[in-house]
Every structure is written in structure tokens, then in C-alpha cells.
């Protein structure tokens, strides 16, 4: 533990539920970050409501559960919330039983099927773009033509690139930009930093913003969307944002810690009902 942790003040309100980003917080690719397994074990062991969030829309929760398991981190499938699930839920709320032309992998197509959407290229109500590793010029052309004919343009996440073992790879945001350039139509992005991703996660576990914290490694996605959804935020320094970059942002996380290992004991310490009274103290 370093100096950052020693300044951690107890929260003014009890913390009953936890949201956490995955990559850069719990794992680097498939490599576990020390403390991650203990943190998750503490959450599950004490029965605290929690959800692991990811902007990646390639995988189903079951795929991600298996990937985490290989990293020594065990979570139930329903504790994983992806931008694909959030996108499907958004569409289900907006136009239940609708139709969409989907570019994406199983993570997205499964989520769309589960909410009862018809996947079709015949006059769909939406074009929904997600992450894929095999972008097809033909599929992009179809998407462009459908949008020009009036289909509404939705994208699971705005990330322009993602990590791979060989280096960065183009992600949903880059392909969305290509379609935008061709059509003049901007997509509605559902994933982080859209606070919709946080709100849908809170609803999923029946949690309330004022008694939930969001843990993340990026100021410009995790912290800003947590903040805008009314959550307290914890930045860990094991991922994207470095300690010397924090003060350059026009907003701050509620807490900064070196790593997820510093959070293990806080799961119990911060869930103290007696702290509720501290709320009105100066
Ligand atoms: Mg991350």
C-alpha cells in the first residue's frame, strides 16, 4: 500500500452496493491484478450487491465469467453487466419487440435475442453496432444504406481502440466514425461514459446511487459516468489513468487508491448503518 491509501476518509454514507470496472481494475487482459480475487470473494461472501461492468460487447456474461474464472476470479454470471446488455435493455425500454440490423458478436446478438428483438436487414427500426473482430465491408455498407433510409443508429460503446496482446485494435467507436462519415448521422452510444450504463446497472441490482460506489481505472469513462449517475467513485491506479494525471481533469474521484487490494476490507468497514447519522455532520 502506498501514500494514496492513507488519506482515504471514511464515507459519509454507508456503502451497500458496489459497481466495478473489469479491465485495469480486476484484470489486465486475462492476468489477474493482486487483490482482485479477494475483493470479489469478500463481496460475494458478505452478500453485498455488486456488478462488474465492461464496455466490451463481444462476450456474453457466460464468456466473461469463464474468462474471469481462468484468472482465478469467481463471479456468478448475473454479476456481469456489459454494454451489450445495457444496449439491449435500453432498446427494450424504448421500443419493446422491435427490429434491428446488428453488427456484432455473440455478446450483442444474444442480448438482442433475449429481449425479443427481431434481427433483420429489412426495414429495421435500428442499426446496432457493437464490437467485433471481423468487420465486414459488406455489413458496414448495409448499415450505411439502412441508416440513410431512416434506421436509428445505436452503438454499444464509444471506445476507439481496445487492447490485444499484439497491440491496439480498432474498436466500436472507430467503426461508428466510419459510418458517421458516410451518412452524416451520429450514433447514440450506450456504454461508458454514458451514465445510462451506471443507471441500468443500479436498476439491475436494485441499488441506489447514494449508497453505491463505482470503482474504475479511467477518469474519462468510469469516474465521469459514476459521478454523473450520482455515485461516489474510487479510482484505482493499476490501469489507464496515472496518479499525476488526476488533477488535470475538471472533476475528481471521491477516493483514489493504489489498487483493488486496498478495497477488500472497506467492503465491511463502509457498510456500517451507524454511519448514516454522520450524513448531517459538517
Ligand atoms: Mg478499465
UniProtKB/TrEMBL annotation:
Cofactor: Mg(2+)
InterPro entries, A to Z: HAD-SF_hydro_IIA
GO cellular component: cytoplasm
Pfam families: Hydrolase_6, Hydrolase_like
Keywords carried by this UniProt record: Carbohydrate metabolism, Hydrolase, Magnesium, Metal-binding
Domain of life, source organism: Bacteria
GO MF term (any one): phosphatase activity
Family named by the database record: Belongs to the HAD-like hydrolase superfamily.
Entry protein name: HAD-IIA family hydrolase
Organism (species): Nocardioides panacis
